Automatic annotation (TrEMBL):
It comes from the Bacteria. Residues 321-452 form the GGDEF domain. It comes from Vreelandella vilamensis. It is an enzyme of class 2 (transferase). This is Diguanylate cyclase DosC. PROSITE patterns: GGDEF (PS50887). InterPro entries: Diguanylate_Cyclase, DosC_2nd, DosC_GS, GGDEF_dom, Globin-like_sf, Globin-sensor_dom, Globin/Proto, Nucleotide_cyclase.
């Protein structure tokens, strides 16, 4: 069954409002004006006591923004004169969409609404004449329920869409060039093993032996494979092998007696072989379908951006690891196309995409956002690391002659806008910061990096 449209909801809301007498509405409006700071504080405070809600609210930025925006929401909701009910409906829809984007459970939103109502009832009983308590409480309750109904609907529409994208992503991750991925990850794992054996032979100290979890293979495994193959029996087994290698056997390698060291080495070799076998089994089950890739560059298209960023935010919540967003845009690309032709432009896009892909690590993501704009998600990084990476990338592209039309070599440059995700549950804010940084980089003359 179709849900009511915006116009129907606006009419329904208007009718609801007219059920309450004008003096009572007026009194509730002044109550909100006087106490909206208290209402917002109360809401925030009670919600922070809930460990599930505090996951979403404890971030400083949320605190600074939520309180004033809650006050604005209350004033808009309870103003006596609503000129435009459709705008009021739209406002609730937007809130519902943000809730879906940050994946806040709906029960927390309903709990928040209940807390607000309680604060209202308390204040109505305290400040308003007895005779109006009933009418005012029903008015407040109906009004908040109406907003919740609209928010919940917008939430479920957006959430369904997210779930479908997530499913598609899972399928995509399962099927993205499985053959290539298998070879790449097999050799990444063997590289790690070789580096370790070399380190042991060279008698490196314990701290400098490479941990499998932080290797190229480990990052790919943690950030991509675990998600794509969630629930597969091989995942539990591989995770166990990695933990045993990093937490037990690497330490054994530093024991004084030779027997312990030899045993640890042989355990590590066996575990590496097991991982290779488990990996093969897991990847073999994946079909050969390719979806979600941009056809020109073979990079990810933006369809999976929300799934990837929400996933990284979730990982960050539990590990305090940060990720960086990097907007990369080829400079004066219109002029390049105009001068050298669209085919030459396409070829440059492919070569730039190749450099971006090769420059990133196994756990990172490269998206083509559209046209000549790309987005890099660099996992497990910090401000200095991502700035250095962006600068190196800029130089790599500026110094790499691009082959177009047979044997012509041409150079292009990129501008980069980068930002470190601040832990906020809504990735949209970090994307906007990266966009602004890119805008500044263009403004500063292009072929440069701006971090925000
Ligand atoms: N060859 C080719 N060109 C594309 C593709 N997609 C977008 N473009 C072109 O990319 C150009 C982008 O131009 P603008 O957005 O004006 O930016 P710009 O010329 O790079 O200028 P700045 O970004 O300010 O340095 C347009 O001319 C698009 O037609 C594509 O797939 N292939």
């Amino acid at each position: 069954m179709r849900y009511k449209d915006k116009h129907q909801l606006a009419t329904e809301w208007q009718t609801l409002l007219q059920r309450t007498s004008s003096p009572v509405r007026q009194a509730v409006e002044s109550l909100v004006l006087t106490h909206c700071v208290y209402f917002a504080d109360h809401f925030y405070q009670v919600m922070l006591e809930d460990p599930n809600a505090s996951l979403f609210l404890s971030n400083d930025q949320v605190g600074q923004r939520l309180n004033p925006s809650m006050q604005r929401w209350l004033s808009a909701m309870f103003s006596v004169e609503h000129e435009n009910f459709e705008a009021l409906v739209e406002q609730q829809e937007k809130v519902g969409q943000v809730h879906a984007r940050i994946d806040i459970p709906v029960n927390l939103v309903l709990n928040g609404a209940r807390q607000l109502k309680l604060a209202f009832y308390r204040q109505i009983n305290r400040d308003m004449p007895n005779a109006t308590h009933g009418e005012a409480s029903v008015y407040v309750s109906d009004h908040i329920d109406m907003a919740m109904e609209i928010m919940s609907h917008a939430y479920s529409v957006a959430n369904d869409r997210n779930a479908r994208t997530e499913e598609a992503y899972r399928l995509f991750s399962l099927t993205q060039s499985v053959g290539d991925e298998r070879e790449r990850q097999r050799s990444a794992l063997l590289d790690w093993e070789n580096t370790l054996m070399y380190g042991v032979a060279a008698q490196q100290d314990a701290a400098s032996l490479p941990r499998l979890a932080s290797s190229e293979f480990g990052l790919w495994y943690l950030h991509k494979a675990c998600h794509a193959f969630e629930g597969a029996p091989e995942i539990t087994a591989i995770t166990r092998c990695i933990e045993q290698i990093d937490n037990e056997w690497l330490k054994e390698l530093h024991k004084a007696d030779t027997a312990s060291r030899m045993n640890a080495l042989s355990d590590i070799r066996d575990a590496t072989r097991s991982i290779l076998m488990l990996l093969d089994n897991m990847l073999e089950r994946a079909s050969g379908l390719e979806a979600g890739r941009d056809s020109l560059t073979r990079l990810l298209n933006r369809k999976f951006l929300s799934v990837v960023l929400n996933r990284e935010i979730e990982i960050g919540r539990h590990s305090n690891k940060r990720f960086a967003l990097m907007m990369v845009d080829i400079d004066h690309f219109k002029a390049f196309n105009d001068t050298h032709g669209h085919d030459a432009g396409d070829s440059v896009l492919q070569q730039v995409a190749g450099i971006l892909d090769r420059s990133t690590r196994g756990g990172d993501y490269v998206f083509r956002m559209g046209g000549e704009e790309f987005l890099l998600v660099l996992v497990d990084t910090d401000a200095e690391g991502s700035r250095l990476f962006a600068e190196r990338l800029r130089q790599a592209i500026a110094n790499e002659p691009m082959l177009v039309a047979g044997d012509t070599l041409l150079n292009v440059t990129i501008s980069v806008g980068a930002t470190l995700h601040d832990g906020h549950p809504d990735y949209q804010r970090s994307l906007q910061r990266a966009d602004q940084a890119l805008y500044q980089a263009k403004h500063h003359g292009r072929n440069c990096v701006v971090m925000q």
